[in-house]
């Protein structure tokens, strides 16, 4: 996947020991042997080797970018491990950083801004020996599941997961619930990039809808219908102008606060046949404000025809 190719002084090759670990992996891996866990710094050399086998040199992440992502956003660097008799070998990973931007750009990919709303995926990569065995899809679904969980538990302000891809992997990401947004503004290499998004807030909205539904379902039978039914007796109402002393007939002293007046009657909706209570008796405080000068609009007399 596209990533910044800027080199940094951190890219000392001494950091990388022998990186042939994943090649020892068995080819007969089943999903039961796969576990998901965050990638520790000790597994970064293996991750980098998988990356270099997965992307052309100008697209592959660098040692420095891997170290930065893992140290700054370790809980966004998830690995798929092949587990075998107590030992485990990294065979794939997804890594991301956070950005406040709502779309992927060179800028939003170039820095990690902690506490931001967009998870920007830099790389989804599976070792060549383990491809087309559903490892990538399982890892991606697990990644989304963990972020959804973090979002629903209110940790951070995560709203979406963003990535860019070439069109041949559209189906792969759609199978994990990502939506196709169309051409990306990112230009890198000869092939066009497309942006895809997973909306984490949608999950929250779905949850609150479910909660409302649940609450309704817990109501005793008939309560909802009773609330929706029009009342048999609609209270009669009077207009303010019907009171001989105007407002002073409608106010009474508040029993709890000296010098404050409150409404003496319920305030009802004046719509024909409605009569719903808008303000209950004794709740509204009367407040006097400076009067406002209203300019009179002079309406010219209508011209008579003929
Ligand atoms: C893309 C990648 C992560 C997929 O991992 P994987 O473990 O092989 O994928 P899965 O086995 O889980 O694939 C699930 C489905 O996704 C689709 N899919 C996977 N790889 C695909 C590919 N290269 N082209 C088209 N569709 C693909 C298929 O529908 C596949 O189901 P199928 O095998 O029944 O046809 C892996 O090929 C890889 O690491 N590639 C190099 C790095 C890369 O390009 N990453 C993506 C950057 S945007």
Automatic annotation (TrEMBL):
Lineage top rank: taxon: Eukaryota
Domain N-acetyltransferase: 34-201
Pfam families associated with the record: Acetyltransf_1
Leader peptide range in chain numbering: none
Keywords annotated in UniProt: Acyltransferase, Transferase
Keyword Transferase recorded: yes
Any one of the GO CC terms: cytoplasm
Molecular function GO terms recorded: aralkylamine N-acetyltransferase activity
Protein name, UniProt field: N-acetyltransferase domain-containing protein
Lineage, highest ranks first: Eukaryota, Fungi, Dikarya, Basidiomycota, Agaricomycotina
């Amino acid at each position: 996947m596209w990533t910044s190719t800027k080199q940094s002084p951190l890219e000392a090759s001494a950091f990388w020991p022998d990186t042939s670990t994943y090649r020892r992996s068995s080819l007969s891996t089943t999903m039961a042997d796969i576990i998901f866990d965050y990638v520790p710094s000790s597994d970064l050399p293996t991750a980098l080797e998988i990356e270099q086998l997965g992307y052309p040199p100008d697209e592959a992440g660098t040692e420095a970018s891997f170290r930065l992502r893992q140290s700054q956003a370790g809980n966004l660097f998830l690995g798929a491990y092949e587990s075998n008799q107590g030992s485990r070998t990294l065979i794939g990973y997804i890594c991301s950083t956070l950005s406040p931007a709502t779309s992927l750009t060179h800028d939003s990919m170039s820095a990690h801004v902690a506490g931001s709303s967009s998870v920007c995926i830099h790389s989804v990569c599976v070792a060549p020996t383990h491809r087309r065995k559903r490892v990538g899809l399982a890892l991606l679904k697990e990644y989304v599941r963990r972020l959804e969980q973090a979002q629903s538990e209110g940790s951070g302000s995560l709203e979406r997961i963003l990535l860019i891809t070439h069109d041949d992997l559209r189906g792969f990401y759609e199978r994990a619930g990502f939506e196709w947004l169309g051409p990306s503004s990112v230009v890198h290499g000869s092939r066009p990039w497309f942006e895809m998004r997973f909306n984490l807030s949608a999950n929250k909205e779905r949850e609150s809808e479910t909660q409302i539904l649940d609450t309704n379902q817990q109501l005793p039978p008939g309560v909802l219908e009773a609330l929706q039914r029009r009342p048999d007796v609609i209270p009669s109402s009077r207009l303010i102008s019907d009171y001989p002393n105007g407002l002073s007939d409608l106010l009474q002293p508040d029993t709890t606060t000296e010098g404050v007046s409150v409404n003496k009657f319920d305030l009802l909706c004046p719509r024909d046949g409605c009569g719903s209570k808008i303000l209950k008796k004794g709740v509204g405080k009367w407040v006097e404000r400076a009067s406002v000068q209203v300019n009179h609009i002079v309406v010219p007399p209508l011209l008579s025809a003929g």
